[in-house]
Amino acid sequence: MKPRLYEYASRLSRRRFLKGATALGAASALPAGLMPKPASAQDNLRARILAIPGVGQGSPTDAHWQQVGELCLGATKANVAEGEFAGVELTFMGLNNQNLHNLLFRGFLKPWEAYTGARINWIDLAQADYNSRLQQSIATGTVDFDILEMGAPFEGDTAGRGLLDEMPDWVSAQIDDSDLVGYLQPPVGTWNGKKYRITIDGDCHTFAYRKDYFGEGAIGGAEVPRTWQQVNAVSKALVGQTDPLTGLPAHGYLDPLKGWGGFGFYFICNRAAAYVKHPDDRAWLFDPDTMKPRVNNPGWVQAIQDVMDLIATPGAYPADQINADPGTTAFSQFLAGTGSMLMWWGDVGSSARTSDTSVVGDVVGFGINPGSERRYNSAAGAWEETANEAPVMAYIGWGIYVTSRVSGDEKKRKAAWSAAAHLGGKDLSLWTAAYPSGFQPYRNSHFNYEEWEAAGYDRAFVEDYLGSNADSYNHPNAAIEPRIPGIFQYYSVAEDELAKGFAGQYKSAQETADAIAAAWEKITDQIGRDNQIALYKASLGM
Q1: Domain end call among 473, 508, 537
Q2: Same domain, residue pair 177 and 281
Q3: pTM metric for this prediction
Q4: Were 349 and a residue from 122, 323, 423, 465 both cysteine, which residue would form a disulfide, CB within 3.0 to 4.6 Å?
Q5: Which residue range(s) make up the domain with 139?
Q6: Residue 230 backbone phi and psi in degrees, to 5
């Protein structure tokens, strides 16, 4: 048996990880509907696209993206006549980080452009630049894009200001959005009862670890760490040892210490959520009645202190970790063979086996966010000596949105939604879940193990990888962030203050946390406290 992860919370029914297993335990929270069924033309299409280029055949190229896009045009052809959008030009704003996102979209949409006659112009943004570019467009009233790749946390900033176009009913049917996993169903993607989002991603953080570091006689110990307390202890104990795969210095957990346009804040959230997300309380970032920040309570301070302890331990982190952002920790460090533990979005799982630069595909394992041996109860203002788990639903997934720029031009509006629907198609989405794309499994239909096996994944790996996603999505104490205006203003300033704390500009973790809380209070007052309270409560279902 593989070491059991996170087993201490017996009341939380969840999958037990099995080494080399071919079946799930009875407590599985995986989506239903995976019973064998007769082969169909749709099944054959899915098998065909999963064979492009084939797991273990290297990184996909633009030619492969175009091939997948062409094969998945059936739904478009059912709703759009050939050449129907001739003369239409659309502008699409999205990411280009890690050579993914927009670069794939270009390939997927080239066949769509050729069939429909429309033309797409591109605005490519680095992840660190995304929030500032979007906020600038909103603040100045200069939205210069018709289609937008955006995460659900920004819906308050966009849908809440009337900047998005409402989704037509035919789009919802074309993409089969009933297939989305539960936590991505409405109210996510909606505002005031209107639907705006085509989901293309799931975005929970999961735990990736090196199996060659753990086990009997391994340098990291007999068992995989299952709490943040154990993660830090192992990271310190590995100092001075040698990586079993590369022969270079061994390292434990890879914290990104450099900001990433607000997105880096999610990584301190992983540590903090285990300490502060109480099962009896939906809130963990702010007090829902006052919007008073909780980011400086003892649980958050402990999370910051964890990182500071590793910074103060020579050799615990790779050299120059102070300049490592999350992209570095995943793609330049972990997948390239540096470090033994990482929290990241699920694309680390698909990239491990399908990227030219990954060397850890045969030794990587997965789990949910490490827990804690104790938890802080904000309502009681005291620690409880009770174990706790809280996977972080970091960013609630990328989606494709159409802006209100096209609302007055029905031909352009239909073209924009057709392009978006092509990218959010059910079959195409399976390919993006299985290959490097920037996205991770997010539909119930993505959890059919047989499809992944047929593509070249071995059963044990795919059960481990998909299971870590499903266990996080379905966890009863998942930490879900609010869809409120200004959320990335909060995150960005938190990154700035954390950077000062990690660099030693503040005297302590508490002082660092207090600085974040003070900055958050100013943002809340600027936006309007009463309105934020109302929206925050609504986002929590209160």
Answers
A1: 473
A2: no
A3: 0.88
A4: 465
A5: 3-13+57-202+397-473
A6: -70, -35
